[in-house]
Amino acid sequence: MTKKTKWSIDQAHSDITFKVRHLMIAHVKGSFKTFDANIYTYGKDFATAEIDVWIDASSITTGDTDRDEHLKALDFLDVKNHKQITFVASTIGKMDEKNMHELWGELTIVGIKQNVKLDVEFGGLLKDPWGNERAGFSVTGKIKRADWGLTWNTALETGGIMVGDDIAITCDIEVTNVGFEDLKMELDNAKE
Length: 192
Hints:
This protein is mostly beta strands. It has helices at 65-72, 184-191; strands at residues 3-9, 15-22, 26-32, 35-42, 45-56, 60-61, 84-92, 100-109, 112-127, 133-144, 163-182. The protein has one domain (3-191): Beta Barrel (Lipocalin). It contains two helices and eleven strands. A hairpin with a 2-residue loop joins β8 and β9.
């Protein structure tokens, strides 16, 4: 009988943020406030992790209500028709000497799937003061919004554009070990 470990995101100690160039001279930062994931590993080896993340697209916030409403509208995330942004991991590279992994997977935004590479720094594994086993990760990457058809923009009188194409992603994630899940049923089904 094979078992795998289930990990739960600690919402109070995790965030998903992004940054994009604005007016060619500065950056706008934002975050998604509602997200979760199914995360499983064999034992405690995160190189074996199965990761399925979902983000509530309507939870986007940049600190400006008008801008947030525009980002939720048809020009960008179209949250009425595309409620979730998802990421499903496909490959996790071995950890290098700097505790970094390459994480590959499918990122789906506005219904369009694209394969992306993210960099993951493993922060460590420990027991907290209450006896819970926890692990921490920093995930970073850069995507081009045009790859998902998100091309809305405005030309500036002085040249250039209002919104850059490159989106820098940073996720700080803390997970808690919530126990084992029996894989016997899953393995039995695979044999049929």
